[in-house]
């Protein structure tokens, strides 16, 4: 039996809060931080080293190198891979701009390849089209903690002699073919910023299984200091991207929870995907079969307004929110629409980043990648803090989707009307 939509004054389906409070901590974090305070090791010390080893083990990589944030982790892996001026790095346009910043801070030029809208990740076919004689690397983004199609991407990289780097900013505990994200390319970067599934407020880590790479990255992070005596002399220099044992102590506690929390997110994602795939006009995100474990930093689905007689995504989302489901729309535009890519740098004197100085710099203003542009118009996002909710509550979320889809006709014409 259907009841009136909550947006039109009916009773909301969801009977209590869906979003888990974030960040989560308990006495363990408090004790761990006090220990560091009393130890006198306030800088990069034993807690950092312990976490680097444990996190690298979780993701099946050999070396972990903590740094200030995910963006820094991506920069230091690009520097470790010797990406520099005149090198192009192919990446996904459906990402946070930190992915591009990592490449650009190393001096590289970003090239975008369209996404596969089913998986929200870079499309291997589009990578092949984007390769030029200057391409040095592919920076995959496992968006939301959902693995890219690594077998195909590694094949393409081998065929064209390209490096593979991983933006695994969302990939804590996630796996492809049973092996950790971040262990598939030459190196990877993760974020521990406050919204992330495991967090120290800010923080990041670079992973690699290549000792020379680890040494160069270590130099970039730690003012040129070599750990393994493998970095060439001329690369033993760097800034200061270190974090402190206070943050590592918190991360060690967060690491204790991340697997169990990912289990809950996986169960909730399975329930959502099962239910949403039954609904006409809603396309839940699909995982490549090898994406054996997903961390669901964000869950995504596509909304096809044609199936709802033109009801817009924003009205549909308002109706869902009124039922008690906190949904968002994800990025409103592909990252290449950011003003930094739309500005005419060649015309002015100020050249802030290496690509702006190259005479044949790409003109991103001409770029139109149809899949990602449509995806940005259609995506509905559900955050990791919702994916952590109880089974009962996720059942209510499903019921709310079913109710709003079933009665979407009542939303026709609501676009400009004020509703309670
Ligand atoms: C896909 C992706 N890459 C990189 C980053 C950068 O991480 P941070 O904010 O820790 O610098 C983020 C942060 O949200 C991200 O979502």
Provide an overview of this structure.
- By secondary structure, this protein is an alpha/beta fold.
- The protein has a domain at 27-253: Type I PLP-dependent aspartate aminotransferase-like (Major domain) (Aspartate Aminotransferase, domain 2, 3-Layer(aba) Sandwich).
- It is built from 14 helices and 14 strands.
- The strands form four sheets. It has a seven-stranded mixed beta sheet with strand order 1-11-10-7-6-2-3, sandwiched between helices. Strands 12-13-14 form a three-stranded antiparallel beta sheet.
- The longest helix is centred in the middle third of the chain and has 32 residues, at 245-276.
- Pyridoxal-5'-phosphate is lined by residues 69-71, 95-96, 98-99, 141, 167, 169-170, 191, 193, 204.
N/C terminus separation:
23 Å
Strand content: 5-15%
Q: What do we call the CATH homologous superfamily of the domain at 27-253?
A: Type I PLP-dependent aspartate aminotransferase-like (Major domain)
> Helix/strand-derived class?
alpha/beta
**Top CATH class of the domain at 27-253:** Alpha Beta
State the low-pLDDT regions, or none: none
User: Biggest β-sheet, characterized?
Assistant: 7 strands, mixed
Mean pLDDT: 96
Task: Write the element-wise H/E pattern from the N-terminal end onward.
Answer: HHEHEHEEEHEHEEEEEHHEEHHHHEHH
CATH architecture of the domain at 27-253: 3-Layer(aba) Sandwich
Helix content: 25-40%
């Amino acid at each position: 039996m259907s009841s009136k939509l909550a947006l039109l004054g009916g009773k909301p389906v969801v009977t209590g809060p869906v979003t888990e409070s974030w960040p989560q901590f308990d006495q363990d974090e408090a004790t761990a931080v006090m220990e560091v305070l009393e130890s006198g090791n306030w800088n990069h010390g034993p807690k950092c080293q312990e976490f680097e080893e444990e996190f690298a083990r979780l993701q099946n990589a050999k070396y972990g190198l903590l740094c200030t944030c995910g963006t820094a982790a991506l920069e230091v892996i690009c520097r470790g891979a010797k990406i520099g001026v005149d090198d192009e790095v192919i990446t996904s346009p459906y990402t946070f701009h930190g992915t591009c910043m990592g490449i650009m801070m190393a001096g590289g030029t970003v090239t975008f390849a369209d996404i596969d809208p089913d998986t929200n990740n870079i499309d291997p076919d589009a990578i092949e089209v984007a390769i030029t004689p200057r391409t040095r690397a592919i920076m995959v983004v496992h968006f939301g903690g959902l693995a890219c199609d690594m077998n195909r991407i590694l094949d393409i990289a081998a065929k064209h002699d390209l490096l593979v780097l991983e933006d695994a900013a969302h990939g804590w505990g996630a796996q492809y073919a049973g092996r950790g994200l971040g262990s598939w390319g030459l190196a990877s970067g993760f974020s521990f910023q406050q919204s992330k599934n495991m967090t120290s407020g800010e923080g990041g880590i670079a992973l690699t299984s290549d000792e020379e790479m680890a040494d160069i990255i270590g130099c970039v992070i730690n003012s040129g200091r070599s750990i393994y005596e493998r970095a060439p002399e001329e690369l033993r220099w760097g800034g200061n991207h270190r974090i402190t044992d206070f943050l590592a102590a918190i991360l060690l506690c967060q690491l204790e929870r991340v697997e169990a929390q990912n289990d809950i997110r996986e169960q909730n994602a399975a329930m959502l995907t099962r239910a949403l795939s039954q609904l006409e006009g809603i396309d839940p995100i699909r995982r490549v079969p090898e994406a054996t474990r997903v961390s669901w930093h964000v869950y995504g689905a596509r909304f096809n307004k044609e199936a709802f007689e033109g009801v817009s995504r924003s009205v549909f989302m308002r109706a869902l929110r009124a039922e008690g489901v906190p949904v968002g729309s994800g990025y409103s535009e592909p990252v290449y629409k950011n003003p930094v890519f739309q500005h005419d740098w060649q015309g002015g004197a100020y050249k802030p980043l290496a690509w702006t100085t190259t005479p044949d710099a790409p003109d991103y203003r001409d770029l139109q990648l149809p899949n990602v542009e449509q995806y940005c118009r259609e995506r509905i996002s559900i955050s990791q803090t919702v994916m952590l909710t109880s089974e009962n509550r996720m059942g209510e979320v499903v019921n709310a989707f079913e109710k709003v889809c079933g009665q979407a006709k009542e939303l026709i014409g609501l676009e400009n009307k004020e509703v309670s």
